[in-house]
Amino acid sequence: MKISTVEDERVHVLNNNSNVWSIIRDIVDTGTQEDAFYICDIGDIVQKHKIWKSAFPRVQPHYAVKCNDSLTVIEVLAALGTSFDCASKGEINKVLEIGVDPNRIIFANPAKPISHIRHAADVGVNTMTFDNEVELHKVKNLFPDAKMVIRIRCDAKVSQCPLGMKFGCNAETEAPHLLRVASELGLDVVGVSFHVGSGCGEPDVFRKAIALSRQIFDYAESLGYRFNLLDLGGGYPGDHSNSIFEIAEIINCALEDYFPDPSVHVIAEPGRFYVSSAYTLACNVHSIRGVATKDPVTEAPSTHYMYYINDGVYGSFNCVLYDHQHVVGLPLKEYPHSKLHSSSIWGPTCDGLDQVVEETLLPELHVGDWLIFENMGAYTLPVASPFNGFPVPKVHVVANEDIWMLLKDILPLTEDHFVIGTTPASLVKNMNVDRETDWVLPDLPITITLPICGDGTIIEEHVLEYVDVCPVAH
Questions:
Q1: Closest Cα to residue 189, out of 248, 148, 233, 145?
Q2: Rounded to two decimals, what is the model's pTM?
Q3: Could you report the per-residue pLDDT of 228-275, keeping only the tens digit for each?
Q4: How would you label 78-88 residue by residue, b for 16+ Cβ within 10 Å and e otherwise?
Q5: Which top CATH class is 42-274?
Q6: Which of 128, 99, 100, 124 is nearest to 113 (CA)?
Q7: What percentage of the chain's residues is helix, strand, coil (to nearest 5)?
Q8: Angle between helix 205-222 and helix 245-258 axes, rounded to 10 deg
Q9: Active site located where (predicted)?
Q10: Which of 188, 225, 281, 449 has the most other CB atoms within 10 Å of its CB?
Q11: What is the tens place of the pLDDT at every residue in 183-216?
Q12: 86 is a catalytic site residue
């Protein structure tokens, strides 16, 4: 039997004294939860937006939907006034369905399927990127009124996920040719975009990319174009331990030096910045294997502990394989003064590649303990699968009272998006429950006595019995 309620999609409003870790502890302490689960704190997303507006006063964020396409995330960001970077027809539809204006979307995929270009034309999403000549001819035939943005390549030497090997034309050798072709086709090219790489670790590369963009702006002017859009792409870190202010200082100075004209509209495509730290994953240790080994220094006998948890690289931790993410498991239970042991963390599937952490130091854990993984909101759930029959973790969305008061009346959010409640009851009651034969039913009949009047002087007895019912007719 599967139990699910409408409230699964709503935001649970908690008192201001709650935090993510206390919420996880409350849920775990009920003893009713075994599956892995997420807590998403939308207050963290709101705080990130405040940081962005402070750090980049001139740059309009277009959230990269591919990073985390949660409807709640999209609705919150739409309410905050962000725009959106979509890579497909499906992502475009998801954003439009909550009432976002098509002008707040950039179709930032340089290689688009034909049907997706047609769809963009039909729904009025008219700004899109390109980096090759074939794409220009496709757009000419399918959407000649589109506003095109040329994507150039400028790779960071250090990035979590490089993109330049797939997208972006050479600014000096290919871009001038493509602009000439676009001019000959009569296409409206309006600006330049770049992407230095997701999770950029080289802030100075943004200045180099902005300087290259200036060269493209100037060359386009010689062809009769008047560019008015600069897209700074993505690459902005979003973990708790990282800051964007070093990148912001470099970008703001470069914009002042190369694009002082305020008529040039500057946008960016942050993804992980907005959602990475908003999601925290709780996983249950369901099995443990001790492997005899030797201390690498003293060669004394030792034990390496292999901890098996109920989420892995085929689920949320696909980010380890595809996003090159380094995850850290933190015990929920405190083990003060405990010795740390060589340990590894493994997913639940039968695949030997399903390793979450190769080597870490942990206290000796026990079956039923929980490991907590922070910064799990980016490039995790959109790629997760139920391989081997293990479910994708459920997400419980929470906000404190201040965030509720801020957002509850800003469209597309309404009061109906929120439910007032305390932990753990308001969260536990709507968790998915999958049970086939382990339900324990009480002996019947049961007689209960209910007062009819407020003073309890008149009572009525009700006898509860099991009855057979037919399926409800539709």
A1: 148
A2: 0.85
A3: 999 999 989 999 888 899 999 999 999 999 999 999 999 999 999 999
A4: bbbebbbbbbb
A5: alpha beta
A6: 128
A7: 30, 25, 40
A8: 30
A9: 350
A10: 281
A11: 999 999 999 999 987 665 678 899 999 999 999 9
A12: no
